[in-house]
Amino acid sequence: MAELNIKRVKSSEIEFKDRLVHVNRVTKVTKGGRTFSFAAIVVVGNENGVVGYGLGKAKEVTSAISKGIDDAKKNLIKIPILKGTVPHEQVGKYSGAKVFLKPAAPGTGVIAGGAMRAVLESVGVKDVLAKSKGSSNPHSVVKATIDALLHMKDPYTISKLRGIEVGRVFNG
Question: Which pTM does this prediction carry?
Fold first, then answer.
């Protein structure tokens, strides 16, 4: 298995857009009745190759979302984007969720659903074909999509690893 090259990013330097993926209402039954709390999964990104996800839990939805945003800003990673799409096909897995990402021609748009769309738009991908297989749990799908993006390598990295010029990476 190839070693992952995770590039962490500091959140102070960049302006982020946050996207709410899912809010889950959780009920705790006590002798005094039911106590409701909320869990929110949030994705933040600068739409230029930096993305992160976070989970926030609180008694109110708004504070759960703000906690999720703070958590997401602590888990930022840099993703290579090539001409508005992903550099190559990639499969990502997390728990029961499997996702498949495939580069698309300019003008295709983001062909992805729900949680995957939020992650891909936050990262700044404009054209991609994506398929989610297995679990539809938003937490797992977000983590599987991040896993697939972490395994992406740009042609410049590949050319350095193989010791060939960039033009030969595409032509084989």
Answer: 0.88
